[in-house]
Amino acid sequence: MKEMKDGLVGRDWQIRQVTGWFQRRLLGCEDVGVLVLSGWTSTGKSTVLNAVAEAEGVRVVVLDVVLAGSERGLTEWVWSALDGNEDASGREGPRRCRFDHIMDVADAWMMGKTSLENGEVHPQSRSVSGNGLVPMFPPPIALVLERAERLQMPMYRDDILESVMTMFGKLPGDRVLPVVVTSRWIAPLWSGSVLPRCTVVEFPGYSRDETHKILLKMHPASSDIERELLEGFLKLLLDVVYHACTDVRELSRFCSVLFPTYLDAGRKSSWSPSELYQSVLPFLQSALDNLYRERIDVARGDPSTALCDGNSDGLQFPLCVKYLLIGAFLASTNPPQHDRRYFTKDRTRQSRSRRRTISHKSSSLPSATSQPYKRQSFSLQRLLAITESLTLDQRDPNPLPLTLFGTSLLTHIADLTHLHLLTINPHLTEPTLTCNAPESLIHHLATHLQLDLAYFLHHDPQV
Predict the structure, then answer these.
(1) Secondary structure (H, E, C), 162-193
(2) 188 and 315 belong to one structural domain
(3) Residue 14 structural domain
(4) Helix (H) or strand (E) holding 34
(5) Quick one: 389 and 446 in the same domain?
(6) 78, 146, 180, 458: which sits with the fewest CB atoms below 10 Å from its CB?
(7) C-alpha span between 63 and 81 (Å, rounded)
(8) Quick one: pLDDT band at residue 132, thresholds 50, 70, 90?
């Protein structure tokens, strides 16, 4: 336990809570219910879970809600993980199962394991431990539902969360340990009758000092001089970037890219670390300030003319912001009841005739110079679901995942609001947004990303 706490900064309380839950579940105490790890990305949820599971001799099997894509896919993954303890997130994918509803998985699996009550070992789980003894039961597994907040994406039913938690509650507590990993922003989902029994462990964001210690562990210095320069660079980086991005992995990428140049300048120059800090600080601050606003002057008119630079690089926006702006445009123009039709994983399984119909209709869609689309407000939750569907292009056999939260999504929305490309409409329950970006800008973005915008736009045949 002490070595675990020394390796994880600022997570002593979380380690104690997760360890206590594991120990009680392994003893058969099901009153603690499902373990829910709640917190923003890069707050140590998976690290603590894997460390505690390894210490307790429990194997971790991860089920990714986004990669599953539908209830059918999620059901197959759960069945694959239970039937044979296979890695459900492996490249080969889950094995086909005969269930269409996730509620049936636990009942069928329990009926197939009743022979274990007589001490009989399942053939697939027979293994020899380090002392040469054959265990009487298969080793316990932690069934981890990753990114559970995305169960509210359009491809899932409204009651899928309750169904998953009911299924988890039927599993034997000493052999299958159900864990849910989710983001903090959907915390209200866990109130009410959805989770009758659960143990919630909150993972708050790291403080600045904790982030500094973590980055020092992630980038060990080879000499005293390099360590002194590294500490100065991390102070510089956190002074400039920490208020906009607290994602440890993102900050680590910044350090990997920028620190070699800083280190080379520190070794070759006669400047002291403090003088080097003062000389680099204004340039780094200017680069951050211009990250979203390069050559933009909103006060002088349409921002789309300033955003487009006319060369092959397209817009001076990060990649995820381009997808975010297109997602906002689609959320503002498409009726919500048609999201399942355009943004689910199964959309790529349409027949060729359906694809030809889409291509035929695209010629009649309003363009940037014709009648504009009618804009409507949309929720942040809907924007996240559409944007993630755009980034996870299922037509690519090897899609490149794009982590929106790793680049401080709320900061991006604030910048787009500052540029008058989005408008936030305050409400008592949940704020809504409206996309103000010109259609010419959206079409330019889609062309730059090689995204067929007509493929996702809803076309009303009666119009």
Answers:
(1) HHHHHHHHCCCCCCEEEEEEECHHHHHHHCCC
(2) no
(3) 2-122+136-202
(4) strand 34-38
(5) yes
(6) 458
(7) 9
(8) very low
